[in-house]
Each structure stands twice: as C-alpha cells, then as structure tokens.
Amino acid sequence: MARKQKLLSKSTANLTVLQQEAKFKAEFLAADGLPELQKTPPNHLKGAAKQEYKRIVQSVGKLPLRNLDRAELENYCTWYGIYKDISIRIQKYAVMIPEAEKELERAERRLKTADQDSDKETLKKIMTELKRASSDLDNLEFKRDTEIKHLDKATKSLKGLASDLGLNVNSRMQMNMPKTDEDKPKSIKGVFG
Prior knowledge:
Layout: H1 17-31, H2 47-59, H3 70-113, H4 120-165, H5 169-176, H6 188-192
C-alpha cells in the first residue's frame, strides 16, 4: 500500500530537482488544476448526509478539495448521516430503558405484595408480566449496546475521512505548518553525536 503523500514544503527526503518539480506539479494539480467540487449534493444522499454535504461545500474555502475527491466526501457524508441516525436511536433508548426498568420494578413489587394465598392464575399472570418486563429490558439494553458499537465504528470512520479531507483542525494545521529546523535532515554526526 502506498504511503500518504507529504506536501513538498513538509518533505524531509533529499529529493532531486526532477522529483521536487513533479511533487510541486502534483500539488498544483491537486489544488488548482482540477475541476471544482460539485456544489449540489448527489441525489443518493439523504437527510443528514445531504445537509452535511451542503455544509462542507460552503465551508471548504481554500482546502484543495476537488471533484476527484467527491467519492471520499460522499463517503464521509454517508457516515455522518449514519452517525446522526444512530445518535437519535440511542437517545430514544435513553428514554425507553428507564421506562422498562420501572415496569420491571412494578412487576417485582406486585409479586412481593401478592398473598401466598392468591390464586394460581393471579400469580401466574404476575410471573408472566415479570418475565416479559425483564425480557423487554434485556432486549432494549442489547439493542442500545449494539447501537453504541455502531456509533463507535461510525465515529472512527468519520475521523479518518475528515482527516484525509482536511476537515479537522489537526489536518488543516498540518497542511499549513511551516517547515522547521526539526524537519531538516540531520547529519550522521548530529544524530549520533
């Protein structure tokens, strides 16, 4: 797998003049020689993904995003839409789980307060409610935990794509950092003393 390319100004390798010119030309084409990014979101993006595409296209400014980057941007927007959908479902579980816990507590209280002399049908009915409430709570907690795992995957995908596209602070700062003395190759004597 090929390494990520560094900007010419960030490169620490000893490049020949031809290699430097090729790298400069590649940077120029990546930034200015290619068609601009499509301004309208593609039809296949829906909901939050479409809104995110619109937001990014308005905000890209001087970032070197071009039409060739559209697939990666669409992938980012799709993951963003998934992230938003999962977040909403997790919020619903935050409401549903306490309600299921209360229902289970009510069934447990009914079972404790039921007379030992109560008829078998009443006890059987309370036990059925107790099992159902316990099962409902377990199912909700399982679904919530599964959604949290999916949210984690979406978050990791978003972070990686955002970094590649220059959509986070660190990646933009890295693009604009001036070359420092630490980036210059050191002599063998300088490295080993």
